[in-house]
Design goal:
The chain has about 675 residues and is mainly β. The protein has no helices and 50 strands.
């Protein structure tokens, strides 16, 4: 036979300086319990209520001519030849005023081969506000003692007990102790005196003291720490000598020469088997705020080809003598300005001209910073940004978003977006991938959640993958980090040129599903995955359809994996989530057509098709459907530049007496002029 221990959750890992008794079972009253034998002793009804404990049994014990007992005797709770199952529980223990307790029990088995079958056992347990946790299960003769430390933070009531099944002749157990104590962990405390000093005061500026609880017989090494060593330094360790409760250490301030205001620093002390202590110390800044230089540029955007702007440099108070300031342009390949500007005595401002530089590169809008500084350090630097627009025509690359995933079972490591171009080696200069979603309860939708600039990248083949740095399905060409896309939310993925916005910009401030601002040059491609529900509540909008691209709406959940089939020109297909450790039909960096075959036309025939150009309301009468499932798809040029696309709004279906079927639908994107083609296609 073996003894098995089941780990308790949660365990308190701190040591105990002292314990206050909360509960101890009272087994002092002899005879409390039940006896039963073949001579006719009347067994008492279960449960038996002792002094602050109870014993239970489902059926009376077996009778073999001797005395079966489950009683107290000599300060012990004894089960002798009980012949079956039973259990014990303490009275409810109020633990609402403490955070941790210790359980201590002492007991042994009696008889020979007490556990002589695979069905026999003895298990300790505890119950916290009705939730049971098993402790030690024993299936071997001998010691039944059990101890544990339990976190009872937020718990009101605790019960300790055991249950058993023992069925051998004259076998049983004796329990002498069931006790619960309030545990008080040992701790370190920290104090500092004084509690503040200037960063230029003579060091050491303060004395710290660390004090320990409990036993002081042995020396104790304590680890010290500062939450900001650029402001305050403490020794790495200090030793509390044997026989002593405390030790002192020095605090040293650091003059950082930064105008950063007063800084609060936490000084901590930790040691093995002790609760960490801490104190705060304020480092007072000695730097004085300098008068600022203000810079403005008008206009804020101008062309590199002959464009210019006026920069105005100002100070709050007119200088007594001419004030010469230095000018630095962050990118002189885009714009130039004089090296200096002089504010004359008695004046508060001066102007200079910034000129664009025609670099002959198709590099889009460039953001440039002009910084003005004082060599004498009498003024705080000032700066302003401006845009230099490109005069070279942007050639839109022939690329599309081809496949993407935003979520997977387990830790999200497989997020990616795959870009496809039919001609290998395409350049991504001036191209960015942006993702629109929401930004908290007060900003439901249209926020720029992610911005990934692709400038400087060139595809080595037809595919370019932007992926999680830990993804296993492929090696990403660009790995911007982890958690690169949000889960379970409506998201719009866009490839754009010359993006001038910033992260967290709200492009749909009124949350009406129409973008109020478009901080880019060209939309190259877009697709939205849309959460089921009514926007703009928590589900948000899919913006791609309103921009002339595709929304993919989930039926029950937000789609997590979508791809074109075939690559580049095919319609969008929603893939499965996949199981743990796999990513289903994903083919990042490879051909999608190998993953799933595209829908193919079968036997049906469209007999009648009508569409109202003003409302988009349409009807399609079809014959030969059988029992198969179909989608309605459309294109504006028979799949030449405009691919066949599933009608996002879907359709309703009605069976007609002649065996035909009428599909009713609404196509909100019917063009005002030109032609739109429709087809039905089997869903495989």
């Amino acid at each position: 036979m073996k003894k098995t221990c089941l780990a308790l959750v949660p365990l308190i890992l701190t040591p105990f300086a002292s314990a206050v008794e909360f509960y101890a079972a009272d087994f002092s009253v002899d005879g409390q319990g039940s006896t039963h034998d073949s001579q006719g002793d009347a067994i008492e009804a279960s449960p038996i209520m002792g002094t602050n404990w109870s014993i239970f049994w489902a059926e009376p014990p077996a009778t073999d001519g001797s005395t079966n007992s489950f009683i107290t005797s000599g300060g012990n709770l004894i089960s002798d030849d009980w012949g079956g199952a039973g259990s014990y529980e303490s009275a409810a223990i109020d633990v609402s005023t403490v955070s941790s307790v210790s359980i201590t029990t002492v007991g042994v088995t009696t008889g020979v081969a007490t556990f002589n079958s695979g069905a026999e056992f003895f298990t300790w347990f505890y119950i916290l506000d009705g939730v049971r946790t098993e402790g030690l299960t024993t299936i071997d003769d001998g010691d039944l003692s059990y101890s544990a430390s339990v976190d009872v933070t937020g718990v009101n009531s605790m019960t300790v007990g055991f249950e058993f099944f023992i069925n051998g002749s004259r076998d049983g157990f004796e329990i002498s102790t069931v006790r619960v104590d309030d545990v008080v962990p040992t701790a370190l405390t920290v104090s500092v005196n004084p509690t503040s000093a200037s960063e230029v005061d003579a060091n050491p500026v303060s004395s710290g003291m660390v004090t320990r609880d409990g036993d002081t017989a042995a020396a104790l090494d304590v680890n010290l720490g500062s939450s900001d060593t650029s402001e305050l330094v403490v020794p790495a360790t200090v030793t509390i000598a044997a026989g002593q409760a405390s030790a002192t250490f020095d605090l040293t301030v650091v003059d950082d020469f930064d105008l950063d205001g007063d800084q609060e620093v936490t000084v901590s002390a930790s040691a093995a088997d002790f609760v960490t202590g801490s104190a705060t110390f304020n480092v007072l800044d000695d730097e004085v705020a300098l008068p600022p230089i203000t810079v403005s540029v008008d206009p804020g955007s101008f062309s590199e080809l002959g464009g210019s702007a006026t920069a105005t440099v100002s100070v709050e108070e007119a200088p007594a003598a001419n004030l010469e300031l230095s000018i630095l342009i962050s990118d002189t390949g885009e714009a130039t300005a004089p090296a200096t500007v002089t504010i004359l005595s008695g004046q508060t401002s001066a102007t200079v001209t910034i000129n664009g530089v025609n670099d002959l590169l198709s590099d889009g809008i460039q953001i440039v910073i002009m910084t003005v500084s004082d060599a004498g350090n009498a003024y705080e630097d000032g700066s302003a940004t401006f845009n230099v627009t490109d005069d070279e025509q942007f050639v839109v690359p022939a690329i599309v978003i081809n496949e993407l995933r935003t979520d997977n079972i387990g830790t999200d490591t497989e997020e990616y977006v795959e870009i496809y171009g039919a001609t290998p080696g395409y350049s991504l200069t001036r191209v960015s991938l942006i993702v629109l979603g929401d930004f908290g309860a007060n900003d439901l939708t249209g926020t720029v959640e992610r911005v990934y600039s692709l400038a400087g990248n060139t595809a080595t083949g037809k595919y370019f993958v932007i992926g999680n740095q830990n993804m296993t399905g492929a090696t990403p060409d660009l790995a911007p980090g982890t958690n690169i896309f949000e889960n379970n939310d409506s998201l719009t993925f866009m490839l754009v040129s010359d993006f001038t916005g910033t992260l967290n910009d709200d492009l749909d401030a009124d949350n009406d599903g129409t973008l109020d601002s478009t901080p880019w040059g060209t939309i190259i491609d877009a697709v939205s995955i849309v959460e089921p529900g009514s926007a703009p509540d928590s589900v948000g909008f899919g913006y791609a359809e309103g921009l002339g691209f595709t929304n993919i709406a989930g039926e029950f959940l937000t789609p997590v994996h979508v791809f074109r089939n075939p690559d580049g020109t095919g319609g969008w297909v929603e893939g499965p989530l996949g199981a743990e450790g796999e990513i289903a039909l994903d083919t990042p960096g490879a051909e999608n057509s190998d993953a799933i075959k595209p829908p193919v036309t079968v036997d049906p025939e469209i007999l009648i098709l009508t569409v109202n150009g003003a409302t988009g309301a349409g009807e399609m009468v079809v014959t030969g459907l059988g029992v198969k499932t179909f989608n309605i798809e459309f294109t504006d040029d028979l799949n030449q530049a405009s691919p066949w696309t599933v009608l996002a709004a879907g359709y309703t279906e009605a069976d007609n007496p002649d065996g035909t079927v009428t599909f009713s639908f609404t196509d909100a994107g019917v063009p005002a002029t030109g032609t739109r083609f429709y087809r039905i296609i089997e869903v495989l």
